[in-house]
User: What shape does this take?
Amino acid sequence: MKDFDAILQQTRSLSLADRLQLARVLFEEAKAEAQADEIDAGVKGLAAWTESTGDEDWSEFYPATLRQKKVG
Assistant: This one.
């Protein structure tokens, strides 16, 4: 927390325009990181779900255009 207080003190010496720019940059970086985390969590969840379904046949739930005709 000591580092945070030092950074905050330094930012107080910036002009209002510079502080606003800094806030925008920090917000955009945080937003990008959060989005990457959400994507990573989604991929992990999809991988876990796919693995858990094993050899189950889900083709009946696919749209008709994606269903493959069974050869039999």
